[in-house]
Design a protein that fits this description.
single chain; 135 residues; alpha+beta; six-stranded mixed beta sheet
């Protein structure tokens, strides 16, 4: 069985242990990050959509940072959006604040009907920095 090198962001380990999943796993030079939502520290959804999307990115960036990465190391993104037709404009308004400069990562968008009370979720795969190389 492959050893899982799990990455936990500061202050949220209990949330992941309670829900029985890893926030991110390092494997073969990559970081596989579980879907991140705009949850507050207690796990409840941020009700405002724009603030929820920002919080999802903040939660994602906390995991990337804990692994020694940044969003610029992300090579693949999957977003899940409840009712994308009505909320996509709001979601896309926030992305440039976090996305960075080109070249951008690959992107897959999936419209869904339910995200456990959330409207937006983002999961990524990032290339881990090579040991000894500065970021």
């Amino acid at each position: 069985m492959t050893k899982r090198d799990v990455v936990f962001p500061p202050g949220r380990q209990a949330l992941y242990e309670r829900n029985r999943y890893s926030p991110a796993v390092k494997s073969n030079g990559f970081l596989f990050v579980s879907g991140q939502v705009g949850s507050r520290e207690d796990g409840s959804p941020e009700p405002d959509l724009e603030a929820q999307v920002r919080l999802a990115f903040d939660n994602l960036n906390a995991i990337l940072k804990a692994a020694g990465c940044a969003f610029g190391d992300v090579v693949d993104v999957t977003v899940f959006i409840v009712d994308p037709e009505s909320v996509l404009e709001t979601v896309w308004k926030v992305l440039p604040e976090y996305w960075g400069d080109a070249p951008h990562p690959t992107l897959t968008g999936v419209g869904v009907t339910w995200l456990y009370g959330f409207q937006f979720e983002i999961k990524v795969i990032a290339k881990l920095p090579e040991p000894g190389k500065a970021q």
